[in-house]
Amino acid sequence: MRKRRGHLVALILTAVLAASCGSDSEPSGTSETKPPPTHPAGSTMARIQAKGKLALGTKYDQLGFGQQNPTTGKVEGFDVEIAKRIAVAIFGGDVKSAEAKIEPVETVSKNREPFIQDGKVDIVVATYTINDARKKEVDFAGPYFVAKQDLMVKSDDSSIKSVTDLNGKKACTVKGSTSEKNLRAKAPQAEVLLFDTYSQCGEALRDGRVQAVTTDAPILAGLVSRSDRAFKLVEAPFSEEPYGIGLKKGDDVFRSFLNDVLEEIYANGEWQAAFDSTLGALGLKREPPPKVDRYASAGTSSPTSTSTPTGAGGSTATTASTTSTSTSTSTSTSTSTSTSTPSTTPKP
Ligand code: GLU
Hints:
Elements: H1 2-21, H2 44-51, E1 54-58, E2 61-62, E3 66-68, E4 75-76, H3 78-91, H4 95-98, E5 102-106, H5 112-117, E6 123-124, H6 132-135, E7 138-147, E8 149-154, E9 170-174, H7 178-186, E10 191-195, H8 198-206, E11 212-216, H9 217-225, E12 231-233, E13 241-248, H10 252-268, H11 270-277
Parallel strand pairs: 1-5, 1-6, 9-10, 9-11
Antiparallel strand pairs: 2-3, 3-4, 7-13, 8-11, 8-12
């Protein structure tokens, strides 16, 4: 009898645990509704809260990260989901209501720095690699994801197995991206076709203007999944791309706040839920989130935010990997994705 009761208790406990935790593959995040927080006077968080919307620079053509839904007009993906969690930390409410608090602004790779510097956006969450050259122009919270650059070719192409195979061939990538820099460094004899967006590169591969497209593997995975089996990922990674949240250079209180939000959503399952509903749905395998890098800002000490989200971690400096050889110096502010002309001239 005692044995049976013990068995029953164990069964109930298992059921309760399963219900509260969910399985590893299906984290639900928190459905908590937060009251509007009080932010330090004069902080960027207070300013955004007062204006009522978070201006988010993101991609509009990258399935899985930032993709405009042609039916609803809404921009969907992992980057947008990360921004929603930031909106909850700024405005309160919950992830669902956060959508109404975001004002999406289309950014392409080359205009991310000027959009931040000119105040066109409050943050950029747009597959944006953290590196030293960009840190001279903007600051980054994160990383919140680490990708690797790879290649995409036609499904029946077996001639391209690694980046060096692009020497003497035509390859497409995007202006102002680390993908362009890495390609030129690893395959200096490749003929490089540059567009504003990776979807334009997909079109160039489809109609034979190039033999390969190169950028971060999860971006290519989105293009592969939309290609109706016409394209494949080569799976020959050749760089590390830690994605950060871009913000105005020197705004250390805001950066610290954003890093707190990231650490909180890593710990409470929201990051995992954001991944599973976007990149996970595309078939990408979820790795644990990367460690936030609270790097020392140039010249100034790093003040801490007094509106730290509950459960956020401390401000220990960590060493996340960054690519230091890449840069983006374009000052173009064009967001057009349809009228841009291809260019084969190297970028500065
Ligand atoms: N992550 C790389 C970059 O920030 C390539 C992807 C992109 O262009 O958004 O440049």
